[in-house]
Fold this sequence. Notes:
Elements: H1 22-27, H2 29-56, H3 63-90, H4 99-133, H5 142-165, E1 167-171, E2 180-184, H6 190-225, H7 234-273, H8 282-297, H9 299-310, H10 312-321, H11 326-344, H12 351-356
Amino acid sequence: MAHQLLPNSSWQNISAPHFTGLDLLLELKPLFIPLYATLVAVACVGNLFLILLIALTKKLHCTTNFLIGNLAAADFTMCLVCVPLTASYAFEARGWLFGTFLCHLVTLMQATTVFVSVLSLSAIAVDRYVVVAHPIRRRLGPRACVCLVLGIWLLSLLASLPTCLHTHYLDLNAVGHDMIVCEEFWPREERARLLYSCLMLLLSYLLPLLAVSGSFCAITYRLRRRNVPGAAHPCQDKWTRSKQKTFRVLAISVLCFAVCWLPLQVVNFIRDLDEEFAILDKRYINVIQVCCHLMAMSSACYNPFIYASLHDKFWSQLSGCFSRRKKRSSGRASRLNTCSILADAPTGLSDRIALQTRFC
Length: 360
């Protein structure tokens, strides 16, 4: 995870006479602090706006958008609670200055929000497949969506507990250092630490990639099997293009997540295996980790722009907030949804049942 920002990741290294690489990082502080400040500002404003747009617009209340809002909430929480304190810790020569409680809370929340993002992206991929495979099945209601979101947060908290339990608040004044450390340590549990690191790499990074890849293959297979006799119906073409565009938005989000988090995942995995710093030099490990951490946290900035620019419903609702053409926009959206539903309805299905089916 991203909370290990100092080069000393074992009990043996705590008593080392010097924190190699910290001086270089402090020299670059004027460069990194504005970058972190910009990241926090953009991510908080963008994700908060996305959350409010989904919460206050009834037409956007569906399973997919609830999960998108949950993803935005996780990114907003991480940037508001975790990133400022983590950055302050990295660039403060005296180490962690926020006490024991915040040491454990920030570690827990950072790991939890990462898992929430991963599970939300995976759930969106599954939801996209269900929409294509079973287009007339009734979607989850608001209560079920709330339960799903709460379940994601609860599962993420449980998965993050080992990280929190192995985080220690240490005052190094007793061993000759004017520094307080808030780090994850696994003393005499090397095998458990490596096993947990591999499991976290699988769950927090590979899971959404596998979910989207599997969903993409399944959706492609379903769409190819859907043969319409004679000429293709224009409404069905619109429905297919709409679902493909929605899935493309998801794929771009997951790809962005994968690219941003890959360097930090690789560096943390190398650190777990290379305790003697034979691969990553101690002189540069701090700067390398801060660069990777900054890149990983930047993933929280992109989702609001991705969904707002590529998703028709978000764009139309956003336009409606700043104009007085809501009725015309609503009429166009209603006609498009009706056309999509009727195009995909099985032969013999009554119009009344088809129109009661909600799509998102």
